[in-house]
Amino acid sequence: MPADSVFDIEAIRAQFPILSREVHGRPLVYLDNAASAQKPEAVIEAMAGQMRTAYANVHRGLHTLANETTEAFEGARADVTRFLNAPSPESIIFTKGGTEAFNLVASGLAGTIQPGEEIVLSIMEHHSNIVPWHFLRERHGAVLRWVGLNADGSLDMAALADAIGPKTRMVAITHMSNVLGTVTDAAEVARLAHAAGAEVLFDGCQAWVHLPVDVQALDCDYYVTTGHKLYGPNGIGVLYGKLEKLAAMRPYQGGGEMIEIVETGRVTYNAPPHRFEAGTPPIVEAIGLGAAIRWVEQFDSAAVIAHEHALYTRAAEALRGINGLRIHGQAAGKGAVLSFSLEGAHPHDIAQILDRYGVAVRAGHHCAQPLMTHLGVTATARASFGIYNTETEVDAFIDALARARDMLA
What we know:
Elements: H1 9-13, E1 22-23, E2 26-27, E3 29-30, H2 41-53, H3 64-84, E4 92-95, H4 98-110, E5 118-122, H5 131-140, E6 143-147, H6 157-163, E7 168-174, H7 186-195, E8 199-203, H8 207-210, H9 215-218, E9 222-226, E10 237-241, H10 243-248, E11 259-262, E12 267-269, H11 283-296, H12 301-319, E13 325-328, E14 337-342, H13 347-356, E15 359-360, E16 362-364, H14 369-375, E17 380-384, H15 391-408
Parallel strand pairs: 3-15, 5-6, 5-7, 7-8, 8-9
Antiparallel strand pairs: 1-2, 4-10, 9-10, 11-12, 13-14, 14-17, 16-17
């Protein structure tokens, strides 16, 4: 079955105002979804409508607007709880993005980690899941242990098992790579970590867009996501944590909302999740994320996965016929992310030429420099597919790439 006939793709596209625009006189072909996805009207209106009719600060007011805004804000927390199958809303913390969520967990671990204790990472992690752990290495004497990949870009599970040992405090692994599209066996990663007495954190910023996620089934201690890749707004992220872990963690920031009592000689802290949401939270952004989740939930997840995979397959098969082109990451079951290099052509030049034909792709190291070193490149070009992309757009991408190859040859 052609990808475009899995569901009414034109009806879906009509809900994204930006997809009707042109770039350099050509229809926009937006294939930069792994960096940030476009927003449907439902998300735009949810945010604008809240600001038009019922905006106020949350939790601390007693007037009508405060109550209505608090209800919408906490409703978004309930949406995230349902979408991740978290056990309770108290286990869901709103942050300003995935990056802050990683830093929150690392900051909590900083209070107890001892010199020589280890953080296990894969070589394909995003910088957001690397740099906070370097802070622990620099400031607390933690040791970072790196796990490599198999030839197809899949995580080397044997090497992971060898890396986890009695000194391991945290295993922090992506659930789906933003560069390779590799989907890791997260449940097995968690099993290995817990068997050694370590905690486990998953970077789900890509995975929760393209896969059903059940944090209870995964048995992870922490799960990090971000809103802007799930057709929601930027400025909003999520940290799921097991409630007992959050209750034992020291606060990340101090200020309003995260306290119970403040006196001149002492302070006591609020219970999770509010303990970790100091100050005025990203209210409208959280409401927009809730709207994005409800929008995504109207579609059959298996149909969406099949649609995106068919687009990826169509593009990958065409690219394999281009001399000198290398696709990075071909693990079984990978997500719809296509990173590639073209011999003799810099990825930035490829992206700029594609842009002249209205095709938006990403070029660079994708915040994954250790992975670039592992692959033997300084950068790649990346096309990433979402729910609103079509076979026609894939063909436009392939045609534009062929033109770029001829120009750069």
